[in-house]
Amino acid sequence: MTSLRLISPLKFLLAFSSASFIVLLFFVTSNYNTTPPVQVDRSFNNEMRGNRSYTPGDFVKYIHPEPANQSYCTFNYKFPEDLTYGTNDVDFGPELGKQSEYRIVYNVLLAKQAEGVPEVTYATHVSADFMYYLPELVRFWDGFISVTAFVPDLDVALVLEQLNQYCHCLPGMSRVSIHFAYHKKLTPSRKDVYFTRPASCEVADSSKLATYRHADDSIVYPINVCRNAARTASLTERVVVSDIQLMPSEGLARKFLDMIDSYKLTDCQKRAYVLPIFEVESSEEVPRTKQQLVDLVKEKKAVYFHKLVCTHCQKFPGIESWMRTHRSEDIVKPFITARREVPYHRWEPIYIGSKEEPFYNEKLSWEGLQDKMLQMLEMCLLDYQFVILDGAFLVHWPGMKKKKDKEDEEWRAPFVKENAREYQKILKNLMKKYKPKPQCKAQ
């Protein structure tokens, strides 16, 4: 039996880094049993428009100034007074199983099935210093959310304190499940902690947090372990595996299911629905409708994701036509069906699929890059169809990514080398497993 009693992360930060403190919240919907994202007061939007000082989650203090007396969440393992779990509660990484170096504790926080919530899960991953994106994600996503948090050593305390605060401040936490992932040699810290009702519902900038992960250069972020765990634990059959900084368009989950019903689309084991991805200037709000997005593109304030750093990664088939098609704010519909084949063999789409797609390769780290490429290759070899959706999209949190200087990326070199080595080993196994298909192109 493992019993974790962690020292307050706030005390830890004050003791070790005067520049790093955090009072972070997790925003969800405005009512415990409702499904729509919170409608933030117009005065808030006007105040924040073009405000470069705005950080993710700032809106929370406008709609929920004080924490509730009781938690809105369903916790397991005796949290928040304690965190106790046994060996039977710990699983291996979903893809590698017993060969995995990582361990998963599922459903530290378990979402409640509620009537009216669109049954599509947004499966994602997070580290302690990125958690302030969660309020924004749940603000915009109208379905369930499954999050795997990477919690090496002391970082678990930072995540736990934030979760406790979210659950007293944000009623919509009922739609969210949280799971923990850690390396077997960096188990969650046993420092004492006792969480009570938080004092505030004001969200702080978690990017300034001094985490254990960043204090040890040898720690890699197991992005694919986290992705696989979040997908595996999803409460719904339909799942979109995405990143914490990607915000969905208005009512995406509900509109997607309306499309499925309207077009009488049957479930197909080898069909996935692609969500085009864009990015906008840091001075802009996240566009909620296609019309808003297209207007920003015309004004050269938005581009398809990674256009400035990796032209092939997110340039999807038919993008020019997609920009010219209908701009209804009310519906999502199929645009075109494509395959991940030459000349789009380097395409890494994010899609609404199921739990049956190939796992992401858990030997590949975030630091080493190309962590999704082999899953896409395998889906090509399996002859998957990719239905690109119109009227639905994702937008990276404002701020365009630009190519970094070579010197700034030198730290990645050993990780890139390791990923390349593992990539070739996995590729070799895939070539043995499937019939040759030259149009899929492995490199």
From TrEMBL:
Record has Membrane as a keyword: yes
Domain of life the protein comes from: Eukaryota
Keywords, sorted A to Z: Membrane, Transmembrane, Transmembrane helix
Chain segments annotated as transmembrane: 12-32
Descriptive protein name: N-acetyllactosaminide beta-1,3-N-acetylglucosaminyltransferase
Species for this entry: Psylliodes chrysocephalus
